[in-house]
Amino acid sequence: MELYKNGLNVPEILTRWYESEKLLNYGAFIPFVGIVRDENNISGLSFDVYEPLLKNWFENWVSRAEKDGAKLKFAHSIGDVLVHESSYVSAVLSPKREVALRLIVEFVEDFKANAPIWKYDLIDSKRIYAESRSKKIIGSGLLA
C-alpha cells in the first residue's frame, strides 16, 4: 500500500511495480488506473484517508490474493487531485491471467464500496464533501 500527496505519477508507479516483480515468474500483470473525470463543474477531487483502517482493509485483500497465488499492489492519493490526474492505481500479478482478471475486478469494486477513504469535490476553490457518492463503512461508526 502506497499513499501519496496529490496526483499520482502513474508511469513511475507502474514501471517500478513491473520492474520489481517481472523476474518472479508471474504470467500476468494487470493494472487499473483511476482518473478524475471533468464533470459536475469540479476542478478536481480531494481525499482524506484513515490509514490504520485502510491498512487493515488492504492487508485482508493481500491475504486473499495470496491464497490464489497472486500479489496485489495499490496506491492512492491524499489531498487534492485535479481533473485528468490519477488518484488511484492498483495491480494484480498472478501466474494465471484468469486469476489476475478476476481479482482486479473484485478488488476495484470492493475498494469503491468499502475502502476508508473520504472524497470531496473541489468546486470554486472549496472542498465539498461528496455525500451523495459516499457509503457508510460497516462497523466504523463513520460515514465514508
Describe the structure in your own words:
- The protein has 144 residues and is of the alpha+beta class.
- It contains three helices and seven strands.
- Helices cover 33% and strands 35% of the residues.
- It has helices spanning 10-21, 51-67, 97-114, and strands at 2-5, 28-35, 44-49, 71-82, 86-94, 117-123, 126-129.
- It has a single domain, classed as Molybdopterin biosynthesis MoaE subunit (Aldehyde Oxidoreductase, domain 3).
- It is globular.
- Strand 6 and strand 7 (126-129) form a beta hairpin.
- Strands 1, 2, 3, 4, 5, 6 and 7 form a seven-stranded mixed beta sheet that branches.
- The two termini are 19 Å apart.
- The mean pLDDT is 92.
Q: What is the percent of helical residues?
A: 25-40%
Q: Structural class given helices, strands, pairing?
A: alpha+beta
Overall shape: it is globular
Query: In DSSP terms, counting alpha (H) and pi (I) runs of 4 or more, how many helices?
Result: 3
CATH classification, class level: Alpha Beta
CATH H-level superfamily: Molybdopterin biosynthesis MoaE subunit
First-residue to last-residue Cα separation: 19 Å
User: Within the CATH hierarchy, at the fold level, what is the topology?
Assistant: Aldehyde Oxidoreductase, domain 3
The structural domain count equals: 1
Largest sheet: 7 strands, mixed
The parts where pLDDT drops under 50 for at least 5 residues are none
Q: On the 0-100 scale, what is the average pLDDT?
A: 92
Strand content: 25-35%
Summed up:
The protein is of the alpha+beta class.
